[in-house]
Design brief:
The protein is an alpha/beta fold. The protein contains 14 helices and twelve strands. Helix 2 packs parallel to helix 13.
Length: 364
């Protein structure tokens, strides 16, 4: 066949490849939209309480602090945050999630808090999805985290994908999330979690940006945090029990009766967020702690910092409001500020450094 004429076989292969990519994009986008819809339904049983109600900050009736001078800011990786909270990974990979990412990244930039995109796995295998994650133009001044599942390091991903994920959104750091319970119940989930610690160590030693390891709702125990600290992980996001139930979300997506039955056994599974923070702070000294998983208000933030967290994260509360209006998001942010500053006043803390030393005790 002449090299100047079209090759029907090659054209067929190209068409098949395009069709496969289009199908993959549709399936990925559909899954992300279903995750959002089910998470917003608020009908999932809460697996465990986050544990914050079991801790009490000591109230100081004579704080000797001027409320108007309380400073809630801190510096993280060279970026100034006005509050010790970030918008935790939520979504990406569909038109619906693109709008949510735009809205929340703009909010984060206006209030000068951190922001993390949802898993970029889809965009790393299908470049047409990249636009749904590109938020830096809406958030030029804030701490931004890239993100994909650590388990992907056992399915072909490497430091190259880490670099691409960071470059895609001009991120300051990358989150490698751990989600064994979720992957088991997700249709087609990736469940080979063997040997990941060594691969995470290689990423930490070669990657130019800091690495954060995050759970997705079941907590990171001190023993796991120590192993991650030992291989060079910058921070753990404990993401403890007390928020979104991924087995319940996948149960509602699945038509498999076995998945329906088995997922119910894990209602109540996981490590409460407050306990994760306290235990890691007490036993692991060379790693930063991000508190998420049921951190719903300014008092929870204050308790987290007092227990040993460096800053906090939340996804569900922001997601709920982002799908209503910008005004709802702003009201939530202003409420967080008022709650946190009031907690700091009533514990005689003028800044975040002092809040880390506030008196807190377990009451149950």
């Amino acid at each position: 066949m002449s090299k100047f004429l079209p090759d029907p076989a090659a054209q067929h292969r190209n068409n098949a490849q395009y069709s496969s990519l289009a199908k993959e994009r549709k399936e990925f986008s559909t899954r992300k939209d279903e995750h959002i819809s089910i998470a917003l339904a608020e009908s999932s049983p809460v697996e465990l309480d986050s544990g914050f109600k079991n801790y009490r900050l000591e109230h100081n009736a004579l704080p000797e602090v001027n409320f108007s001078e309380i400073d809630t800011s801190l510096n993280v990786l060279g970026r100034r945050m006005n509050l010790p909270i970030m918008i935790s990974p939520i979504t990406g990979g569909s038109e619906k999630s693109k709008k949510i990412n735009k809205s929340l990244s703009e909010l984060a930039n206006d209030f000068k808090i951190g922001f993390a995109v949802g898993s970029q796995r889809g965009a790393l295998t299908n470049s047409s999805l990249e636009v749904t994650y590109k938020i830096r133009k809406y958030a030029p001044d804030i701490l931004v985290f890239a993100n994909f599942g650590a388990v992907q390091l056992n399915y072909g991903f490497s430091i190259d994908e880490c670099r691409r994920a960071i470059e895609m959104i001009d991120a300051d750091a990358i989150v490698l999330h751990l989600n064994p319970l979720h992957e088991v119940f997700q249709a087609g989930g990736n469940t080979n979690f063997s040997g990941l610690l060594h691969k995470i160590e290689k990423i930490c030693s070669k990657l130019e940006a800091p690495v954060v390891v995050k759970e997705v709702g079941y907590g990171i125990a001190a023993s796991a945090a120590q192993k991650l600290a030992d291989v060079g992980v910058y921070a753990v996001d404990v993401a403890g029990a007390g928020s979104i139930s991924w087995p319940e979300i996948e149960r509602k997506r699945s038509k498999d009766v076995v998945v329906h039955n088995a997922s119910k056994a894990f209602i109540g599974w996981g490590n409460p967020t407050a306990e994760c923070i306290e235990n890691i702070a007490a036993h692991v000294k060379n790693i930063k702690i991000i508190a998420s998983g049921g951190v719903r208000n300014g008092v929870d933030i204050a308790k987290s910092i007092a227990l040993g967290a460096d800053f906090c994260g939340n996804a569900s509360e922001f997601l709920k409001r982002a799908t209503v209006s910008r005004s709802e998001c702003e009201i939530f942010m202003e409420s967080l500020i008022l709650e946190l500053k009031t907690a700091m006043l009533c514990t005689s803390c003028k800044n975040i450094s002092e809040l880390k030393k506030a008196k807190i005790k377990k009451i149950v």
